[in-house]
Amino acid sequence: QVELVESGGGLVQAGGSLRLSCAASGSMFSINDMGWYRQAPGKQRELVARITRFGSTNVADSVKGRFTISRDNAKNTVYLQMNSLKSEDTAVYYCKAEVGVTQYVYWGQGTQVTVSS
Q1: For residue 29, what is the DSSP state?
Q2: Closest to 111 (Cα-Cα) out of 95, 84, 92
Q3: The dihedral sign for the CA sequence 117, 46, 29, 73
Q4: Among the residues of the chain, which ranges form H helices?
Q5: pLDDT tens-digit profile of 46-103?
Q6: Dihedral sign for Cα atoms in the order 42, 89, 86, 62
């Protein structure tokens, strides 16, 4: 019923910036928490940042001070602004959303972020 589509990934040099977007489409009652996860080569998927419907945020220590999560409820879209990118930020970034009173979980297909030295 709900599709999450990530965009904005790509190849950047260390120190550069990218902004990821995740747009939700389809039928839904409401979107509650949304978040960004990433999976680096040879690593487990990890939480990068999350945001509630009211704008409260949590950011992983590894990206604190460099990444910012935000959302536009009218557009059903969540963003991840990534600054001062490092090679260790290279990963596939996945969008996650919890929808409706049951908090049903949806995942996007991921977008590749590659940071070169």
Answers
A1: S
A2: 92
A3: negative
A4: none
A5: 999 999 988 999 999 999 999 999 999 888 899 999 999 999 999 999 999 998 888 8
A6: negative
